[in-house]
Amino acid sequence: MTDVISKNNQELRSTITEYLEGLSSKTSERLFSTPVACLAIFRLLSSIEKQFIMSILYIDNPLTSKEVSSWAKPGFEGEIITRLGPLRKLHIIEKRDGGLVLNEIFRNQLKNALTGGGDYKSFGVLSNRVSRDNIEQTVLDNYALKKWESILHYMVGTDAGAPKPSGTVLKLMVRARLMEEATDYQSGGTKLKISNKGFQFLLQDVNSQVWTIILQYLRQNEEQVEEEKQGIHVVEILNFLFQLSSLEVGQAYIVESLTPVQRRMLSDLREFGLAYQSRDSDVFYPTRLVTVLSSIHSNSASGSLNNITVGQASTNITIDQQSDSSGFILLETNYCVYAYTDSPLQISILNLFVELQGRFPNLVTGRITRDSVKSAFRNGITADQIIMYMTAHAHPHLRTQTPTLPITVTDQIRLWEDEKDRVRGSVGFLYSDFNKPSDFDIIYNYAKKLNVVLWHDDNTKQMVIAEEGHNAVKAYFKSKMSKQGRPSSQGTR
Amino acid sequence: MVRSHKGTLVTCDPVSRVVLLNLDKKYGFVIRDLDNTHLFIESSRLEEVKHMFEKIMDQNSYKADIKVD
């Protein structure tokens, strides 16, 4: 289970680094121009990469690759050079005078970040005076939670009259293909409907969800801005993002120090509950949704991936009210589900794969049935996602057991998933009635080389060739026949 | 002389194969019965066959009627 989850986290990490790797060297250098960005990128790196950077941070002359490989254990010299590949893609290390050297801007700003100095404003500027709208942490948490949940709730319950989020949010949802337009048969117009990807999104933990949204936001901004300005634009957004992730919840920060682009981003983030700013106020507050972004950096970057489970992640940050320190789902070996929740969002999510039967003020009951799980599969949800979700939100009672969920139920869910494609078809050509066994061998060997054999049986001398390989195989066989008159076993090259 | 047929190779488990062969008796779509887990059928019938198969499987799944109290 942890394997699946850690893989997810890794994917997540790789997406943001992948995004950074995709930036041009010019854009990267602009990005490096603030200490906060350098520090944030540094946190994203693996421990070996971090160690390398720390080692050469205060060395001014380029290092030859021979010197670098002398740091490795004997036998692993080549390894260390390949492990530095990602750093070069990120434009952090460069080749100069035949040696490796840290990017000058990155080096200076990382020094600034570590020892203080440079553009201290990039870490956000605290508001000194007591603001008229001084806000406590719990208020911020509730605000972020309410905003985020209302978006999720809208996704899952468009029919149940969930309030509609703002246009910015909706546009992003459609762009990220979490929702798609579908024809509304009642009114004849179109309305937004959750997509398969959206269903999967719902079952992820909050961290992953925020990351998905942020990455989509970055891509969307890239598309909107004309080429020449793009670099600056993206850098400002990334800078602000890194800045936000290093801020402290419950503190007020000054809006004035932000660029126009960043101010617009702030108002967009407000819609998602990632930041709070009362109308026309000159200060803003980051919420826990955005400050945890850096916590996943440090977690995943420190290589302690295996220790993280979705459940722990969400309990640590207690963003998810329903999954705070105690989970709420009880699952019994007889497939009965008891969920201690009154949140419409959680109930809607459960409704995706549980047949709900009873609802009480603080409890819903239901069962996992073949039909309920099958309908989830039809929505593109996988068995792993269902199991992961229930594990993450398991009631403390269940947590005392290993594995957390009853095996009978999890196994059955997987079996039901296998049932989904019990009968699989692939188009092809059946070859049969060969004149002699050697003809079969000739064709079989050739087709195997092309990797187009779908099925074969040596005893009955029959085989099925994939559609795309048919012409090639036919032509080959014909040429064999005409060349030798009769094909012989010597033709099996 | 070697012959080639166009069609669809169906991969399934032995139980499904028997179900499919029974369906074939009535509706006739199998070109050749290859082995325990493979059948060669007419391409145009694949979706129809899958649908019929699903229906039979649904009819043959039973659920215990446990009431949650």
Automatic annotation (TrEMBL), chain A:
Gene Ontology annotations for the cellular component aspect, listed alphabetically: transcription factor TFIIH core complex; transcription factor TFIIH holo complex
An annotated Gene Ontology molecular function: double-stranded DNA binding
Top-level taxonomy: Eukaryota, Fungi, Fungi incertae sedis, Zoopagomycota, Kickxellomycotina
Locations listed in the record: Nucleus
Keywords: DNA damage, DNA repair, Nucleus, Transcription, Transcription regulation
GO biological process terms held by the UniProt record: nucleotide-excision repair; transcription by RNA polymerase II
Domain Transcription factor Tfb2 C-terminal: residue ranges: 411-478
UniProt cross-references to Pfam families, sorted A to Z: Tfb2 (PF03849), Tfb2_C (PF18307)
Recorded family membership: Belongs to the TFB2 family.
Function text: Component of the general transcription and DNA repair factor IIH (TFIIH) core complex, which is involved in general and transcription-coupled nucleotide excision repair (NER) of damaged DNA and, when complexed to TFIIK, in RNA transcription by RNA polymerase II. In NER, TFIIH acts by opening DNA around the lesion to allow the excision of the damaged oligonucleotide and its replacement by a new DNA fragment. In transcription, TFIIH has an essential role in transcription initiation. Component of the general transcription and DNA repair factor IIH (TFIIH) core complex which is involved in general and transcription-coupled nucleotide excision repair (NER) of damaged DNA.
Gene3D superfamilies noted in UniProt: 3.30.70.2610
Name of the featured protein: RNA polymerase II transcription factor B subunit 2
UniProtKB/TrEMBL annotation, chain B:
Protein name as annotated: General transcription and DNA repair factor IIH subunit TFB5
Annotated transmembrane regions: none
Subunit structure: Component of the 7-subunit TFIIH core complex.
Protein's cellular compartments: Nucleus
Keyword Glycoprotein in annotation: no
Described function: In NER, TFIIH acts by opening DNA around the lesion to allow the excision of the damaged oligonucleotide and its replacement by a new DNA fragment. In transcription, TFIIH has an essential role in transcription initiation. When the pre-initiation complex (PIC) has been established, TFIIH is required for promoter opening and promoter escape.
Any one Gene Ontology BP term: nucleotide-excision repair, preincision complex assembly
